[in-house]
Records
---
Amino acid sequence: MQSGMHTGKARKQRGSGKHHHGHSSGAAHGAARLTTELDVRTAVVRPQAMQTPVLVLNASYEPINICGAKRALVLVLKGVARTEEEQGAILHAARVRVAMPSVIRLLEYRRIPHQTRALSRKNILLRDRNCCQYCQVVLTAGELTLDHVIPRSRGGLSTWENLVACCPSCNRRKGNQMLHELTEMKLLREPKPFSLHTSRHIMRMIGSADPSWRRYLYFESGEAA
Ligand SMILES: [Zn+2]
């Protein structure tokens, strides 16, 4: 089913950050429109299947990211990516049945600046391994909040260096105060951008549990498991 959702061919367009897929047939286009992000959210599927991490490959098959299955499915239904490996669960939404992806591949090559990952809640939680950077409690992504080390109200920016995973109680305790005003709160480590090295390491950590990821994660020479 998923390969019928788009008519795009795997193209490698270096340097192109835009996605055009205006040549979809009417039926495929209609189906993609039917299954909006909202449909996916309310669709019938085991909840854990929606949260399963999905490996995202560039058009060149290079692993570039991990996203949640819900986001991956939206990319597939929009025709931006195609499913390379399935996870077994089937999504029933609106009038479509789609196999939940385990690995997806972008149809257009995306240039990924070295050592820069997209700044997102998900990536910050991945970097911090779902661990509150103040009290070290490990929680699920849904339970954690993001804390601005220098509060926004005091000029703190939303950057890799100023955002950390934080449990609700530490977040309440810290409030709008600066760290140096709170002697009992310290950062576990200095927050840094999510490097390519870190993300590869995390992809492998997660991927080692999923055999369908392995062939994509270990193809680089000199980096055997
Ligand atoms: Zn905490």
---
Amino acid sequence: MMIRNIALAASAALALGLGGTALTLAQTATPPAPAAAGPASTLRGPSSFAGIADRQARSVALFGEIGKVLTHPRCVNCHPATERPRQTDAMTLHQPLVVRGKDGHGAPGMECTTCHGKQNFDPGRLPGDPHWALAPASMAWEGKSLKDICEQVKDTSRNGGKDMAALIKHVTTDSLVLWGWNPGPGREPAPGTPAQFGALMQAWADTGAACPTS
Ligand code: HEC
Ligand code: HEC
């Protein structure tokens, strides 16, 4: 079994044009600085919603801004509708075929760690993180309305048992979330900055975490 896994891993690596050395390097390569945010990839800060007097309407508007991040390819590719991750800014199905597996880390013999290292490996365009894994099916966002995403993200039976404080902690400290702003070359970072995203989430929670109606 072990030998078979190694053979599969080696052939997968070769199929990618990566030798064993490249995979070893993937563990040590330094991640690049995040690309500067262009006009299309900016976020409005919480203060720009201060003019909305009605608290619930302000909360809904804040979630609209948060939604720009949640529905961005950097997040949706790992929160897909099916068992398969997606990849690139065009959100194409992951090649080769890999599946969530029982715990998000892939099927035996084709685990995410076969290719994804602890950090991005830029020469191979390979993203990496110490706990690279697919989000559970209950946390799928692909193809859903902002209303549905909003309700799901707040629902402790679907969000991994996170209350609002835990949810904010997750989105401000989890390395997979933060990777969205440090995705390596050839991928657009998530809009804005992690700090802006965290501030929007906090402001949304403080205004009652209301959800859009559509
Ligand atoms: C490499 C895959 C990956 C990427 C990329 C990723 N996530 Fe996740 N996400 C996960 C996994 C796995 C979990 C569940 C495990 C956990 O809770 O730590 C999760 C859980 C979450 C949760 C908590 C559950 C929920 O649905 O409310 C939030 C919020 C979240 N991710 C936000 C984001 C945001 C925002 C981005 C993009 C900036 C992002 N994620 C990118 C894999 C990913
Ligand atoms: C056989 C090698 C291989 C395996 C196994 C593998 N990946 Fe990938 N993955 C890649 C490569 C290569 C890329 C980069 C493709 C590109 O951007 O051109 C990639 C990209 C991705 C992306 C896209 C990131 C983005 O936003 O563009 C996600 C998400 C992803 N993989 C998730 C996973 C998950 C989850 C697993 C385990 C269930 C996994 N991969 C297993 C090789 C692999």
---
Amino acid sequence: MPFASQQMQSVASQQLSKSDTIKLRNKHIGQACQLFYRSDPLKIVRGQGQYMFDEEGTRYLDCINNVAHVGHCHPEVVRAGALQMATISTNNRFLHDELVQCARTLTSKMPAPLSVCFFVNSGSEANDLALRLARNYTKRLDVITLDHAYHGHLQSVMEISPYKFNQPGGEQKPEYVHVAPCPDIYGGQFTDKLHPNADLGALYAQPIADICERQQAKGQGVAAFIAESLQSCGGQILPPAGYFQAAYNAVHRAGGLCIADEVQVGFGRVGSHYWAFETQGVVPDIVSVAKPMGNGHPVGAVVTTPEIAQAFYDTGVAYFNTYGGNPVSCAIANAVMRIIDEEGLQQNAHQLGEYLLRECSQLKQEFECIGDVRGLGLFVGIELVSDREARMPDTKAAHWVVNRMKQLHKVLVSSDGPNDNVIKLKPPMCFNHENADEFLLAFRECLTTLTQEQLQQSAAAAAAAASSAVTTNGVIATAADTLANKTKMFERQDRLIKSV
Ligand SMILES: Cc1ncc(COP(=O)(O)O)c(C=O)c1O
């Protein structure tokens, strides 16, 4: 590793105390910027593989950074980026081999018609461009998106992100955006419990077909249907079999294009396939990729068919993106894709994912608070509930677990989903068996303690109810106070993490 000594010096020379860092951040960084563990944030000064280290050298097992795909500061990625930076970094209006090689490798991983790339700097930019391509090709405006979806922070993609615009202070949904239900068979509109023998894929695709029909009746059609191939912000959702086939067919019949957002779930994370859309046997018209592609460096891409790219060219308006496709970004993306293959990280995701799912399902047998365990590869969700039969989301429990995992066990997990009660795992792909066991041991401790706490709380509540029934004013206190304190303790656990 060429930089080892400078790297250690740079860590050692972090002069600010943590409290000064917090003060400066509070003063100069917009408060709207999300901060993990806001009441006790982490100051991370170094990363290596699946670990991050704070300013005191404490090691955290990282189960949430799907961006550091091949591992934090992978030496090959660092070397590729540094070498290219020391050689030339300019824009893609000049010929460069890293650019074309990156496009060749990326498209070689996709089904045949997806052979043309546009390089960008982020997932938001990728989805923004994907929308432009679709609107230009179809000459239509309307977009179908899924409930709870997040597609980025630019105005254009915030408008198709119910995850954001449905928040209390969110902006209003534009008329040209149509929201279809999130295909969540555990907690969504059509569940496997309420519809045990139904074709849930068809049921969830029907509202999309209905939107298409209404749009056609109005003579407007649709420009695009955009969806994450597995919805991460929705709470690690695996759509039911046949869903995307049926949805894509309906959209295509209405003359629209299908955009697969693989910003979180691409590059082998799902283990069985390189792209998550492949698990449903569909071929999108446009694919957006980013996050893992740069392993922490800002690079993304839109991949599409020659016809769609040609229509964009035919507008006569040239596409230029100053940093999109610069040689440094492309050298890094090339290194990432090479490492995924060389180190067998997709297979690793497959094997470890199966292990994690098996072990978490075992935990579900033991702990009533686990309502559902789902996932594919190293993309796993564990849904916590307060009533398993009623599938009642337990948001407080999820926050409590996230916080305790960090404070006590130094394991970083996050919570998400419409009720923020799904514990999410999407670690760097170099996560190993030992790491899985470390997570499982810590998680088991949390569930055990949580269950004990909850039992104590219900006992306290029962005692309070009983004593209030027989006691007059003034003496009721103890049991009720204990309960109130415990509730406050739960409430103090900030809304901790959203790992978008
Ligand atoms: C599914 C999905 N799409 C798009 C984006 C936007 O990517 P970026 O933050 O790189 O702009 C995100 C970011 O979290 C995402 O999760």
